[in-house]
Amino acid sequence: MTGTQPGLASIHGQPSMASQMNTGPSGIFGKTDGVAPAGIPQSQSCGSILGIISPSSSHGADGYRGNGYPFSPASSRSGNFTEPRSYAPRASALSTMGNEPPPKFDPNGLLASRQAEPVAPAQLQPVPETLAMIHATTGQEATAWNPEPPSGTALVSQGPQTVRSRELQKLTNTPTGLPLLETAMSQDNFPFIEAPRMAQAVNHGVVKLRNIPFSTKRAEVIAFLGRNSKILNDADEPVHIIMERVTSKTMDAYVEFVSLEEAMKAVDRHHHNIQLGRVGRLGDRPVDVELSSQASLMKDLFPLARGLIWDGVTPQFKPFNPEFAWENFRGFISEEEMVMLIKHVEVPHRSPYSKDCPQRPYECLISTLKKFPWYATDSITISQRHAVYIATERLLQVLAEKIGRGTDPMNLTPQLQARLTNTAMACPGFTPLMKDNLAWMLNVSEMEQRFYGQPLFAHAWRHQYSLAPKPGMPLDVIEWYISAIREQTHRDLLSRPHASRTELQEKGRQTDMHWGYFWAEVGHGFGPHFDQMTLAQAAQAEFSAVERILSRALPQA
């Protein structure tokens, strides 16, 4: 195709990934411009702390094979990944087993001649009905089409097919059935977004409670402020009881109000009660109430974030100081903090504070996910997000096990599990694959997953580290774009030489091909460089790859 293709700069106003780093793929499934270093060591960002090695561990030291084509870190079934693997297929092995007990042990063989009673086969649960799509063909007529399910999954269509959405009809209402590239890439039609940037920096009024008992509960804080206090809704998690993630010691508590005026009223009401001789107490301890700010809350919630100044909930980074390296910014959280958070719930008897207040680590994680500045994608790396996700997954798993055993029904309740689940599923920093893993682990229904903005076949989004569905976009529009990407990358593969095509096909058998060879077009690297890639860099590479593929698949004006 002749002519200069419109790059991502025409959409986002930023230079392309290849022009910034000189490592992006050139052409179709092209090799990176930089030379792959020999003997890349094991990733230190995750491997030394979480016991997870770099994606390159299962593909060789340099992250390249044969003809030098890089491929996505999640494209192999062996080894460990920086990003979580999908738990598909979803079929439960328990559904194929009978309910009869095993036969009794017969040492003398007296019962050998007796025939066992026939066991009725287990009833298989029907596959839930999925949405049927209408796919526009290259002709003027449209044919009924179901989105291709990922490999290894069964798709059974029941009932009449659903008529395609109005948005898809408008998009494909052309003589050829294909929209122009400019139309497909327009903001109204393009169904993908950079999910972490959907987080909003909102500055609510804040009240700080000092000198609280370490076993203070969230309900006690809300009752202390009174029913007339206009705090945020429960879904927004307005109460933040600060906990040291290393020692699990309870510090102060912060409460967010709907406005600064309401926070000031709550403080004035408390001071007025003190003048009347009614001292506010939590338990048997008098509590100090003072007006605070979002900057103070963020500073106490992320104490290891150096080299920045909090302007409300927005971080303002200081210039790099080569003389005092420990004062430079390294991250909002450390991977050691997340590891210790897991240890507090796995072995609470070794943590005296967690033993007496077992719900505190879970509430600390809820506050961390809610207040984490996901919108600062230039300062969050793949490994740091992975550490937060691993902690979330493990805490949800341990909490579900303890609730099932009835370990502490007074503190570890289903309500606490629901709060943590809602916070994790609504977290803008997690990928669709991460949320799908959590939904599968917690048996979240399909309808609830749609409420959280999950796409169809979310477990097939293995190579999307920043790409996510746009909220409110019809599911058939999203699947139409994925189908266009999949079919175009398969056509591009046929134009490759036989050796290169065979190499990519072998790698494709090791991963999910619902997105086609999108992973080869993106061409992520391996090793510590991949672990230290920021979410903004991952988004730049993925959106550039989508635009390059669509520019070859769709006609241009």
Explain this structure to me?
Residues 1-40, 58-109 are annotated as: Disordered. InterPro entries: Nucleotide-bd_a/b_plait_sf, RBD_domain_sf. The chain is built from 20 helices and twelve strands. The strands form five sheets. Strands 5-6-4-9 form a four-stranded antiparallel β-sheet, sandwiched between helices. Helix content is 35%, strand content 9%. The radius of gyration is 27 Å and the shape is elongated. With 557 residues, the protein is of the alpha+beta class.
Supply Rg: 27 Å
Count of helices?
A: 20
Mean pLDDT across the residues is 76
The helix/strand class is: alpha+beta
Please give the oligomerization state of what you see.
single chain
Low-confidence segments: 1-161
Anisotropy-based shape: elongated
Main sheet characteristics: 4 strands, antiparallel
CATH topology of the domain at 205-427: Alpha-Beta Plaits
Q: From the coordinates shown, what is the CATH architecture of the domain at 205-427? A: 2-Layer Sandwich
Main CATH class of the domain at 205-427: Alpha Beta
Q: Approximately how much helix is present in the residues?
A: 25-40%
Q: In percent, how much strand structure appears in the residues?
A: 5-15%
Total number of strands: 12
**N-to-C span:** 13 Å
What is the spatial order of strands in the main beta sheet? 5-6-4-9
CATH superfamily of the domain at 205-427: RRM (RNA recognition motif) domain
Characteristics:
557 residues, RBD_domain_sf, elongated, 35% helix, four-stranded antiparallel beta sheet, Alpha-Beta Plaits, 20 helices, two-stranded antiparallel ribbon, 12 strands, disordered N terminus, single chain, alpha+beta, 9% strand
